[in-house]
Amino acid sequence: MVSHRRAVILAAGQGTRLQPLTNGTPKTLLEVSGRPILDHILDSLEKNGYEEVIVVTGFESEQIRNHCEPRANSGLEFEFVHSDRFASTNNIYSLWLAREYAAGGFTLINSDTLVPSQSLGKLQQKDGSALLTDTEKELGDEEMKVALENGYVEEIGKHLDEADAEYTGVSKFSAEDAPSLFERIHRFIEHDDVNEWYESAFDDLFDRTAVEHVSVQKPWIEIDTPADLELARERWG
Fold it and tell me: Angle 178-190/199-206 helices, nearest 10 degrees?
């Protein structure tokens, strides 16, 4: 399947900052505007013509699989990859587990992130690799910051002292660039650096590969805390 029809959703985490809401429920199944976060993401994928969705699960994986099953009858094809190490690894390990399905190119979506479907469409239309970024948000210590130059990504990381945008948790890697990304992730995995953010591998890739950015439309939100969840419920229709 061509890369612009394939998406990888990372949904292995425990969502500890949202406890007790996530004590027995995956974060992506918490409701925003009367529907689970995951459904909003899947709706957006369907609207933009995606056909294959690889979901990396961990915590309460069966809930996610069962939730997705009815959607498989409406046109989306699902593959599920389970992380047995979800409690002791970060998202770089989750992405690594999807390599068999994603090496031909893919769109990456964190399962706690909501972006307008139009923004996902703009990202999808890029021929090459690109990050979906917010160039207007005031950046603090917790944001995953991005340094840009002439429309291309130079660096990414929470550590950046000077940055131009926040990474939204949504990105696209072309069939040409995806294998290089997974080669870089493999270097972390073979040294058991499984508690890194996948953006550490991104940063290495940006040194050698031209990756553009697409500005996200508003509203968008990453849901990490109860305050984020309440804000999402206020803003997201």
Answer: 120
Q: Which H/E stretch holds residue 173?
A: strand 165-173
| Token duo for residue 35 | 């529907």
* d(C-alpha 232, C-alpha 225), whole Å: 11
CA distance 70 to 75: 10
Q: Would you call 123 exposed, middle or buried from its count of C-beta atoms within 10 A (0-12, 13-18, 19+)?
A: buried
Q: What sign does the dihedral 178-183-184-185 (CA atoms) show?
A: positive
d(CA 40, CA 46): 10
Q: From CA 119, how far away is CA 115, in angstroms rounded?
A: 7
pTM of the model: 0.94
For the segment 76-85, what is each residue's pLDDT rounded down to a tens digit? 999 999 999 9
Tokens read off for 164: 């131009």
Tokens matching residue 234: 């206020």
* Separation of alpha carbons 86 and 213, rounded Å: 30
Q: What does DSSP say about strands 165-173 and 106-110: parallel, antiparallel, or unpaired?
A: antiparallel
Instruction: For residue 197, give the nearest of 206, 188, 205, 209 by alpha carbon.
Output: 188
- Give 46's contacts (C-beta < 8 A, 6+ positions apart): 74, 75, 76
Q: What does the pLDDT look like over 148-180, one tens digit per residue? A: 998 899 999 998 989 999 999 999 999 999 999
Q: How far apart are CA 153 and CA 220, in angstroms?
A: 20
